[in-house]
C-alpha cells in the first residue's frame, strides 16, 4: 500500500503505481471528497461538461422532485405558522 506525505505547501504526491492504476494523467483534475473523516480522491473526466451532459435524461425529473419537495415544505411551514398564531389561522379561514 503506497504512502504519501503532504508537503509544507499542502501538495500531495500520488505514487506512479496508483496513478497508473487509476489512469491519472499529469495536470488532470481530481475530485476530493470527505467521507466519514477520510478523503476520497476520484479522477475527473478530461471534459467534465461533455461527460456529464445528458446524464439525467432518463429517470425521474430532478426539477419535478425538487418542486414537489418544496411544496411539501411550504405546507409544513404554513401549518407550523398557523398553529403558532391562532388569530392568523382564524383570519385565513375567513378568507378561504
Describe this structure in words.
There is one protein chain. The chain has 96 residues and is an alpha+beta fold. The protein has 2 domains: 1-47, Ribbon (Pemi-like Protein 1, Chain: D), CATH 2.10.260; 56-95. It is built from 4 helices and 2 strands. It has helices at 16-22, 48-52, 62-84, 86-95; strands at 30-35, 38-43. It has a two-stranded antiparallel sheet. Strand 1 (30-35) and strand 2 (38-43) form a beta hairpin. Helix 3 crosses helix 4 (86-95). It is elongated. The termini are far apart. The model has no long low-confidence stretch (mean pLDDT 82).
Please describe the structure with a list of short key phrases separated by commas or semicolons.
47% helix, alpha+beta, Pemi-like Protein 1, Chain: D, 96 residues, elongated, two-stranded antiparallel sheet
Amino acid at each position: 500500500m503506497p504512502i504519501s506525505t503532504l508537503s509544507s505547501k499542502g501538495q500531495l504526491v500520488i505514487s506512479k503505481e496508483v496513478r497508473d492504476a487509476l489512469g491519472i494523467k499529469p495536470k488532470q483534475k481530481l475530485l476530493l471528497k470527505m467521507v466519514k473523516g477520510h478523503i476520497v480522491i476520484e479522477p475527473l473526466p478530461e471534459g467534465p461538461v461533455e461527460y456529464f451532459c445528458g446524464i439525467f435524461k432518463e429517470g425521474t425529473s430532478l426539477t419535478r422532485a425538487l418542486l414537489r419537495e418544496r411544496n411539501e415544505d411550504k405546507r409544513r411551514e404554513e401549518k407550523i405558522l398557523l398553529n403558532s398564531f391562532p388569530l392568523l389561522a382564524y383570519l385565513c379561514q375567513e378568507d378561504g
